[in-house]
Amino acid sequence: MTIGGNATFSGSVQADSVTVAGAAAIHGGAVTTTGAQSYSGAVTVSAAETAFTASGGDITLSSTLDGTAALSQGVVFATGTGSVRISGAAGGSARLGAVTLASGTTACESTLSAGAVTVSGGTLTFGGDATFSSLEVAGGAALAAESGSPAVLTVEGTTTNGGSITLAAGDATLTGAYSGTGGALTASGGTTVFGADVDLSGTA
Fold this sequence. Notes:
Elements: E1 2-3, E2 7-9, E3 13-15, E4 18-20, E5 24-26, E6 30-33, E7 37-39, E8 43-45, E9 49-54, E10 59-61, E11 65-66, E12 74-78, E13 83-86, E14 99-108, E15 112-126, E16 130-137, E17 142-145, E18 153-155, E19 159-161, E20 164-167, E21 172-174, E22 178-179, E23 184-187, E24 192-194, E25 198-199
Parallel strand pairs: 1-4, 2-5, 3-6, 4-7, 5-8, 6-9, 7-10, 8-11, 9-12, 10-13, 12-14, 13-14, 14-15, 15-16, 15-17, 16-18, 16-19, 17-20, 18-21, 19-22, 20-23, 21-24, 22-25
């Protein structure tokens, strides 16, 4: 499916691939493809949760990603071993709700503002400031600031790290309890503030 202008999807979408040259308003809660998905303009989601699934391709958002009301619209990205790239701000105009990532690599090149963020597989990188209500990094998964980036990470609630969190030159504020059992946290610059208890039991 190739749309040369803007697109509004009122129901779920199943296709071999999806390409939208303009803005995309996604209301149906799911876009599922066997190949790639590409959105050149701003993407807006309105369902409580919208799942972007590409079983055999990458997902590329060349502009922004927003909900319609702060913390009310969540997203799931699942590409298997494929990649997800979001070039513009994610949650910049309307902060996203829960975000779940199950892809090989997810790159947010600008700011990322969301509710509960779960990295269940692969690696999430961010190039701009990132603000989450809570953060969970599963075993074998990773979250990392782009190399040399002064991006600031703020987690307003709890952080559960069973995988790997790597921070570059920016600061980090982990307001709630930090549980790092089985995980690794590396901060190579800036200041890392732990606002509550830190539990690293069983971690080398």
